[in-house]
Design a protein that fits this description.
The chain is α+β, with helices and mostly antiparallel strands. 22% of the residues lie in helices and 35% in strands. The radius of gyration is 18 Å and the shape is elongated.
Length: 193
Amino acid sequence: MEKINKILNREINLLKDGVKNGKSPYHLFSLTTINKRYPETRTVVLRDVEVDPLKIFFNTDYRSPKIKDIQSNPFCSALFYDENRKVQLRLKCESVIHYLDDIAFSRWQKTALQSRKCYMGPFSPGSKIDKWHPNFPLELKKKNPTKESSEAGYKNFSSIELQINELDILELHHDGHIRFQSSKEKNLFYVSP
């Protein structure tokens, strides 16, 4: 049990590092939702990690198709992979959409101007358009918005909370793999001091 806790703690700490460290293999992850009958997978940016209970967060445009997927079925999965260490982290999650609430507002306040620009676009993500458009105000093509003008994007901003129901860690080793699962019911989601 001690070795499992050590691995679990290590991976949670690496997830925390992935929030701020853009070079971390855990900064980006694959999110899979269900679109009617079919899975939809895309890459999102890890924005926060909370422990006890374990939760991860990412931001997305509220007009995005993934919002509709989550509204129809809040259950999803997240996949992280560290190629150098040969470690795969799979999470079964239940998602909560934060839109125009205290959590969304707090996360919006921490969003950089260059990222806020992405929420100022006239088109919903995934929209079919007749010709290419950067999907942000054209006057911002080579610059960031001011903080004041960027507030126009808040109406399209949402923060998605993924509550972790089950976690599966796989370490690939040529002399024998290590794999284990943990869940909320087993009460193993904690980080030792």
